[in-house]
Design goal:
heterodimer; A: about 70 residues; mainly alpha; 3 helices; about 50% helix; about 0% strand; B: mainly alpha; 2 domains
C-alpha cells in the first residue's frame, strides 16, 4: 500500500445512524440471497422453476464461482 | 446512504466485467477440458455422469458468453451492495481507519469467511465430477457451513472489541473463528466423489481457477468501491 495522497476523511465523519442503514440492509440482504440462490443453486439441489434453463444459462458462472453444481 | 449503495452496486458491476475476462481466460479452458472428459470418457464413470449434464440443449457459446456474464454480474452487484452496507455499518463504529483501509479490511475478512474457508471444506467441482444423487446434501452442507462462517464473524469481532492490544485482538478473534469453523468442518460430512480416472492436474487447474475468479471479483469490487467512495462519496 502506498501512502495516501490526501488525509483520511472517513474518521472525521460521523458514523451513519443505524436507523438509516437498517431498511437498506434488510432489502439488500434479501435481494443478495435471492440473486446468489439463482446463480448458485436454482435447478441444482432445489428448483423454484421447472426445467433446467436457469441452471444451464448460468452454468459456467456457477462452476467457476465454485458453487456445488451437479 | 443511497449514494454509498449506488457506488457499491456500480463497483460490483465494474468488477464483474474484469472477472468475466479472468473467467474466460483462466476458467473456461479448464471447464471445456472437463466437459470434453465427460463426453469422451463417459464409459469409465457412467454412474458419475448426470444425465442432464451438461448443456441441456443450450449451446456452450451461450453458456460461456452471456450466461457467464449474467451470472457473474448478478453475484458481483449483490457483493457490491453488501459491501456498501457493511461499510456503512463498520465505518466509525467498528473500524476507524481511512476509507481505503476500512474497505480493505471488510473485503479481506469477507473473502476469507465467504470464499476461502468454505472452499477448503467444500471445493468446487468441474463438470463430470460429482454424484448427482448427493447434490442436495452437498448444497445444503455447503450453505450451512457458509452461514455458520458468517454468523461466527460477528461474535468473533465483538468479543475482542474491548481488548486494547491490536495484536492480541487479532490473534484472539482469529482463534475464536478458527476454533468454531474447525469444529464444524470436522462434524459436517465430507464428499469424496472424484473419479480416480479424472485427471488430477485438471481438477487442480479447475479449483485454482475458481479461487482466481473469486479473488478477482472480490479484490476488484473492493478496489473499485474504495476508489469510488473516495472520489464521489464525500457528501455522504
Amino acid at each position: 500500500m502506498t501512502v495516501a495522497t490526501r488525509p483520511a476523511v472517513s474518521s472525521d465523519l460521523p458514523a451513519i445512524p443505524m436507523r438509516d442503514i437498517a431498511p437498506w440492509a434488510i432489502l439488500a440482504a434479501l435481494l443478495a440471497v435471492l440473486l446468489v440462490y439463482f446463480v448458485g443453486a436454482e435447478q441444482g439441489a432445489w428448483s423454484v422453476f421447472a426445467g433446467t434453463d436457469v441452471h444451464e444459462f448460468v452454468h459456467d458462472a456457477r462452476h467457476l464461482l465454485g458453487f456445488p453444481c451437479h | 446512504m443511497t449514494r454509498l449503495l449506488v457506488l457499491g452496486l456500480l463497483a460490483g458491476l465494474l468488477a464483474s466485467v474484469v472477472t468475466f475476462g479472468v473467467a474466460r481466460l483462466v476458467g473456461e479452458p479448464a471447464l471445456d477440458a472437463a466437459i470434453a472428459m465427460e463426453t469422451t470418457d463417459s464409459h469409465t464413470h457412467a454412474t458419475d455422469t448426470p444425465d442432464l449434464s451438461d448443456t441441456g440443449g443450450m449451446s456452450r457459446h451461450l453458456q460461456a458468453g452471456p450466461g457467464l456474464f449474467v451470472g457473474l454480474a448478478a453475484v458481483g452487484v449483490a457483493l457490491g451492495g453488501i459491501l456498501a452496507i457493511s461499510f456503512a455499518v463498520a465505518r466509525g463504529r467498528i473500524l476507524h481507519g481511512s476509507t481505503r483501509a476500512t474497505v480493505a479490511w471488510i473485503t479481506a475478512l469477507g473473502f476469507a469467511a465467504v470464499i476461502v474457508v468454505p472452499m477448503l471444506k467444500f471445493p468446487g467441482n468441474p463438470p463430470a465430477v460429482g454424484n448427482p444423487e448427493t447434490i442436495g446434501a452437498r448444497t445444503l452442507a455447503y450453505f450451512a457451513f457458509l452461514a455458520l462462517s458468517l454468523a461466527t464473524l460477528g461474535p468473533a469481532v465483538s468479543a475482542v472489541k474491548g481488548i486494547a492490544s491490536r495484536r492480541r485482538k487479532m490473534l484472539i478473534g482469529a482463534g475464536i473463528y478458527a476454533g468454531v469453523m474447525s469444529g464444524a468442518a470436522i462434524l459436517l460430512p465430507s464428499f469424496h466423489e472424484v473419479d480416480p480416472a479424472f485427471p488430477r492436474d485438471l481438477l487442480w487447474q479447475f479449483r485454482a481457477s475458481t479461487l482466481a475468479v473469486q479473488a478477482t471479483l472480490w479484490a476488484s469490487t473492493g478496489i473499485a468501491f474504495g476508489w469510488l467512495v473516495e472520489r464521489f462519496g464525500q457528501s455522504i
